Amino acid sequence: MFNPNFIEIYDNALTSYHCKEVIRWVETQSLTRGRCAGDNNQTVVNLKVKDSWDIFGKFSKKNYVDLLIKDVLNKYTPFYLETYPSVKLMESWDVDDDYNIQKYDPCGGYHALHHENEGGQVVRRVMAWMIYLNTVTDKGGTYFSYYNKTIKAKEGRLVIWPAYFTHPHKGVVSKTQTKYIATGWYNFVN
């Protein structure tokens, strides 16, 4: 069925077991404060914009977590293309090798409305994806302002959407619960 907001949701894309495994793995890693785009497209830490703990992944490293997440994207991206076949008409694109896993402590979040292709270093982004690694029952979702749509943080849920100005979004902060997500992009190849 056609969805005019181009935001697709695939529940149980990653199993509960695998979500918990990814979170266990994240908790054994050295996390860094979340970075976001700042002035002049420089990457900065600004907790008023993005208050998170991140670990940066590369699918080319092919560790257990990389393989789990890449398998989900390989399985579900064709469903998105089936719903929106015109995406196949665009210049060559693929899943970006870089992605990150973010941990948002209570009251943390991506507070500012933003979209994933804001020019500069990220101009190659075509679409974005996100997998919620845990269920958050006290808010904790993602809000897309143009569509007045909030997507709830549900364990194993994959969300895919366009990276452009048509899809500004921000985190919906939970004051009481921690949220974990894996997120990344589909980029133009050239």
Please give a structural write-up.
The protein is α+β, with helices and mostly antiparallel strands and 190 residues long. Helix content is 16%, strand content 33%. It has two helices and 14 strands; from the N terminus they run βαβββββαββββββββ. A seven-stranded antiparallel beta sheet has the order 1-12-9-14-7-6-2, with helices on one face. A three-stranded antiparallel beta sheet has the order 11-10-13, with no helix packed on it. The longest helix has 20 residues, at 64-83. The protein starts with 7 loop residues before the first strand and ends with a strand. The model has no long low-confidence stretch (mean pLDDT 93).
What's this, in brief?
The protein is 16% helix and 33% strand.
Give the N-to-C terminal Cα separation: 32 Å
Specify the biggest β-sheet. 7 strands, antiparallel
What class do helices, strands and sheet pairing give? alpha+beta
Shape: globular
Provide keyphrases for this structure.
single chain; 190 residues; alpha+beta; seven-stranded antiparallel sheet; 2 helices; 14 strands; 16% helix
Topology:
Layout (H helix, E strand, L loop, with lengths): L7 E3 L5 H11 L5 E2 L2 E2 L5 E2 L5 E2 L1 E6 L5 H20 L9 E12 L4 E2 L14 E8 L9 E3 L4 E3 L6 E5 L6 E3 L7 E10 L2
Antiparallel strand pairs: 1-12, 2-6, 3-4, 5-8, 6-7, 7-14, 9-12, 9-14, 10-11, 10-13
